[in-house]
Amino acid sequence: MFNFRFERMRNSLLARLVALWIALLASAAATAYLLFGLYTQSTAVQISQAEIAVGRACREIIDRYTVFIRKGEAVPGSEDLVGIVSRALGASPGIEGGIWSSAAGSIAYAFPSYEGSGPKTDLPEAERGAISAVNAESLHLGRSVVNQRLSRTQALLVQACPLPGREAGLTAWTMTRAHVNDGPAYTRFLAALGFLSVAVIGAAAFLGRFLYGYSRRIARLEAALAAPRREDADLAHLERTGERELDRLVDALNAAGLRLREAREQAVAAERFAVLGRLSADIAHEIRNPIAAMRLKAENALATGDPQRAEIALRAILGQIGRVDALVRDLLHLTQPRMLLREPTDLRRLLSETAQLHEDQARGCGLRIVVETDGLPGAEHPHIDRPQVQRGLDNLLLNALRHGPPGSVVTLTGRRILREGAARLHLLVSDQGPGVDPALRPQIFEPFVTGRSDGTGLGLAIVSKVALAHRGEARLLESERATTFLLDLPWQPS
Prior knowledge:
The chain is about 55% helix and about 15% strand.
């Protein structure tokens, strides 16, 4: 069962669209992750380039300081040191720096590429601690040291290099800022991420709305097709959904339903003609036999001229006329439409009266009729057409009395049952006879189907018509103990 459902989900268009939606979201997440990685890599490159620049500037200060002290014999003054730093950083935009003494702190500072209103000569106080720490570390280690301090929008890079010379405790330092969340790379990243977000959200919203509308339309079609209807009812006429592809299916189903209805009408018409043909043939056969018998009796009586033979022939002719009259009466009961006159009916009284009508015939056959009404409620009565139901019970009782062996019992039972929450009336007639020939059971309620040579085959057909008129059914119950016919009728009309 699970595999079957999985195959249905996997092969459905809706499942494929949902999978496409999930793939779209997954690809958007992967793309966003890739963009972030590229931006992070770009930021790392900027920091690396800034680190190279401060290192080059720091070495430039060392080179110029070394050249200066080699040329001069006196210790350079503060103005000389500022000049050395300015010339060293002049070709390095965005980099500031100076010379640091372990004893006196900053002894020279320059920022030649400063873009303010005038030259910047003061050491930035906010970074004094970081500058002091990196210079102290470089002096202690005796080599170049670079420190990074990252914030949300920028990376601060400070590098210190020991200065050679006669004066101990001096270091050169350079500093720059790399704007990691600013500039062209950051702008491109935000633009790409924004475009991706808008595209993905728009596509997901569009696809989600499409899936919702598509599933609702399919659900309406399924509900219309699955709505309960009679077995002989036509296919439901489906309304167009507004989706071009689905409307093609709707039009095809409506066209198929129209063709099915036409084919059913043709089949019903053909079946009516076939039934009419069989009925005409059976009626002709049933009437022809008595007429042939009457003709033979009359010819024999006329040929002999014996008054006694003529009397016997007339009595036989009257018997055959009665047979034809019963046949015509049953045919009228079977074919004439009649409106149901439902009314609350005392079923115990109806069953008792029906049984009494056949008591004499039952005694003549050596049979006994038993009425069982224990399954009926005391005060509530079913709504039925009493004369028609009694006619159906008459035919069932006559059928049972003809087949029951002498000394046996014919049972007439009435009971009220509940089926699917609705009350039903069950009327049963059982006999201990040999039962119905299995070959006749599928057609036992059709006209002129009988297992007796002297029967017309219309009694059970009348029973079936009474049941159908009440929107019920007549059935032959399979039982090992008795042959039982059932009239299953609604307790009240729906």
